[in-house]
Amino acid sequence: MSTINYDLKNIKALAFDVDGVLSSEMIPLHPSGEPMRTVNTKDGYAMQLAVKQGLHVAIITGGKTVAVRIRYEGLGSKDVYLGSSVKIHDYEHFKNKYNLKDEEILYMGDDVPDLEVMRTCGLPCCPKDAVPEVKEISKYISHKNGGYGCVRDVIEQVLKAQGTWMADEAFGW
Fold first, then answer.
1. First CA to last CA across the chain, in angstroms?
2. Is 119 domain-assigned?
3. Which has fewest Cβ within 10 Å: 6, 33, 114, 136?
4. 128-141 confidence digits (pLDDT tens)
5. Segments forming the whole domain that contains residue 78
6. Binding-site residues for substrate, please?
7. Whether this model's pTM surpasses 0.85
8. Which positions does UniProt annotate for Mg(2+) binding (predicted)?
9. Alpha helices per DSSP H over 22-131
10. Is residue 100 a part of any domain in this protein?
11. Are residues 47 and 158 in contact, defined by beta-carbon separation less than 8 angstroms?
C-alpha cells in the first residue's frame, strides 16, 4: 500500500465522482430503467468523519439519481452536484463557494469526464481500476478499486496527516 506524496495538511476540501469511484463501475438497472448504485460503508464512514473534522466534501456526478443526493447529503455533504455534464463548472462553483485554492482540493475521478477537473485541482487521485488517461495524470492511484474503499483510502490518509483520524468524533456516527 502506497501513500499520497503531497502535503495533506493543506487539504481543505475533497471532491468525488460517483460511478467508478464511490460506486463500482458495474451498475445494476432497476426494472424501471433507473441505475442503482452500490455504496461502500467504509467510504461512507470516512466521508461523514471528514465533514465532522471540518473538510468540505463535494460530490460531482453526471448521474441524476435522487438516491445519490439522499445518500451523500445524509453523510453531511452540503455540495452534491447531480447531472454535471461539464464537471469543471461545478468544481469551480464549489471552489469559489468556500474561497478555496486548487492546491487545497483533492479530487478523485476514474474516467474521461473527470480529466478537466483533475488537471485543475491540486491533488488528482483515482482508484486502481481507473482508465489509463486518468491514471496518467493522477498524483495518487489507490490500491483499491472504485466502490471498494478507494475513497476511504484517501480520506484516511488526509485525516491521519491532519491528526484528526482517531479524534473523539471518530467513535460515533
1. 27
2. yes
3. 33
4. 999 999 999 999 99
5. 8-162
6. 19
7. yes
8. 17, 110
9. 41-52, 66-74, 87-97, 115-120
10. yes
11. no
Report percent pLDDT > 90 for the chain: 83
What are the start-end ranges of the H helices in 11-138? 41-52, 66-74, 87-97, 115-120, 132-137
Q: What is the DSSP letter of 165?
A: T
Q: Which residue has the cell 476514474?
A: 110
- Which pLDDT tens digit goes with each residue over 102-123? 999 999 999 999 999 999 999 9
Asked if 110 and 131 count as a contact pair (C-beta separation under 8 A), the reply is yes
Show the cell assigned to 76. Answer: 453531511
**Binding-site residues for Mg(2+):** 17, 110
Residue 173 located in a structural domain: no
Contact 96, 126 (CB under 8 A): no
Count structural domains, the chain.
Answer: 1
**What CATH number is given to the structural domain containing 42?**
3.40.50.1000
Cell 456526478 belongs to residue: 61
Question: What stretch of H or E contains 151?
Answer: helix 150-161
Q: Would you state the cell numbers that stand for residue 69, as one nine-digit string? A: 443526493
Tell me the C-alpha distance between 138 and 166, whole Å.
27
